[in-house]
Amino acid sequence: MLDELQKNLGFDENAMESSRMTLYRFGNTSSSSIWYELAYAEAKGRVKKGDRVWQIAFGSGFKCSSVVWLALRTVDYDEMNLWTDEIDEFPVDVDCDDGPLPIFFERSK
């Protein structure tokens, strides 16, 4: 789904990074995934005061929604963020052409 979205909207890898890394680290968490993605962008220092962030979410069936947020402030990197503990280890290569993903996933640090 992410590959098709990227292709059809003409996004580069950087625009898709937070979605791919959220899926890699937390799996499909349904509607809460968009907040993990926003937290990823904040932890990477990519959301600054005055920036606009476009979030797109897809649900089951034919559900889709989007919103544009305006950053009212730049997030302090020392603030609590669920990515802070290992943000420097991301992004990782999630190329799945090597075969099926393992059934057992180790919990994040």
Automatic annotation (TrEMBL):
Gene Ontology biological-process entries: fatty acid biosynthetic process
Organism: Lactuca virosa
Transmembrane segments: none
The keyword Transferase is annotated on this UniProt entry: yes
GO cellular component terms attached to this protein's record: membrane
A Gene Ontology molecular function term of the record: acyltransferase activity, transferring groups other than amino-acyl groups
Domain Beta-ketoacyl-[acyl-carrier-protein] synthase III C-terminal: from-to ranges: 1-69
Alphabetical UniProt keywords: Transferase
Keyword presence, Electron transport: no
Pathway: Lipid metabolism; fatty acid biosynthesis
Name of the protein this chain belongs to: Beta-ketoacyl-[acyl-carrier-protein] synthase III C-terminal domain-containing protein
Record Gene3D superfamilies: 3.40.47.10
